[in-house]
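Check the record.
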Amino acid sequence: MPLYKTPAIILHALPYGEADQIVTLYTLDFGKIKGIAKGAKRSRKRFGNRLEIGSYVRVTYFEKERPGLVRLSNCDLIRPFAGLREDIHKLAWASYFIELVDGMTAEKIENKTLFRLLAAFLSLVDRGILKDEIQRVFEVRLFSCLGYGPQLEHCIRCQRKPAGEKFFFSARGGGILCASCAAHLPGTIPVSLGTIKTLLLAQTLTLDKVGRISFSPQSLKESQAVLSAFLREYLGKELKSKKFMEQINHKAE
């Protein structure tokens, strides 16, 4: 059986039998994988507490000849992101980002950009940078990493670039529409030029500057409507972790 070693982020781990765990990881080199950690509940040397949600680890595993779960052999800690599990607000945010990645990716498709995106945003959450802008930037960057858009540079029907006129967003169409084209489509969302420019900036901003980005109140409101609609269109449902995060945020206000 081939042996592999790669940095990974633990998406979730579930108990399996008396001593084992089924673990889902997003890896730097191989994308999302699922594996079984034999004796994980008993072996502190090989696994310890390193299979906790959000942990940044280096995992060693064996790939079976037939499709199915890989066999996790060892797990070394790179960054624990311990704060994610010590604070309910941080856990709520991290759980949302992790569930988004898990829900929007298939297994064994390498995407190094996505891995680095998730690691960077878990680091922000671990440091206590919990603001609405972070959520919006992660959502729009995740879509970009996966090649789903949204198209914000020009009208998806007539190719007109946004200027001073009113624009709209179509979740089903996956991008913005000028007023003329939007008149022919139901269910569009008004969006200002300022919000379009802000989301375009969010798509290209270097990760080390993300924590300092600031949206105007109007852009926060409009981008929430746009990205929430786009996520519902793509996923076909509301994520449980998003509802949990919103409840926690509401209680903190």
Q: What stands out?
A: The two ends are 53 Å apart (CA to CA).
